Amino acid sequence: MRGCGPLVLLPGCGTVRSLETVHHSDSEIAIHATEVASEVIRSAFHAPLTHYAKQGDDFATQADIAAEKAILDVLAAACPGDRFVAEESGTTGSARSDRTWFIDPLCGTRNFAVDTAFVAVNVALRDGDTVQVAATADPFAREVFWTAGEGAFRRAGGGDEPLRPQAGSHLVDVDLDHPFPWSSPARLFDAEGFAGQFHGRVLSTSLALVWVAAGRRAAYITGGDIRDSVHFSSAIAVCQAAGCVVTGLAGQPLHTAPHGLIAAADAPTHARLVEAVAGLRSG
User: What does the alpha-carbon distance between residue 265 and residue 218 come to, in Å, rounded to a whole number?
Assistant: First the structure.
């Protein structure tokens, strides 16, 4: 994929080796942006945090805000004509651009706020109606799961390896923050077709979704309308590029009613989970 402009590599960030200005593809820009944010997050870990109230009992911290600024600085410098949708600062950039970046600077703020190192950084580029580039970083494992549309990869230690979904663990991560239209997602753990066949987990970050692509989870399930979500756009694109089966809760096309998400490592696992979720609807 083409690069959208020069990218200034900042000292001490990710895999940066110099201060030279170079041209990168959109995927390298996205990866670099997540690495810069990851460094911000690591530097704030275990440090005193200020909570900034949001809607309901939701909140951000200064780490969320600083990580988002770091990402936006990278993207705005490299792609000044693009549009940016970020969790904390909202929409900026060109309203007329067909290219929109979705930015979730710290997915798992509640985990981070209690010194739990299960968080993710999500950056995705949608061109028109399609997410073309996506990168989801694990700041503490120092790895980035990414795609440029064909194939999905894990970058660690400067090298890339292809992601290979596997369902053998039977571990299924369920997002409890987004209810199903007909049930609490917590009921799934005791549902026929799930209990005794799968092992439920709750990581509470989109990191678990890219773990499906990496073979570390058999599947991931969430409710809600997640179209254009800064939290999910990147990880969904990585899963799709890796060859996972990705649909809505009823096995229907993604982003259609009744919405939600089932991302499974393979077709048999997906079919069993669709059936288990359907049982909650009829029960």
Answer: 5
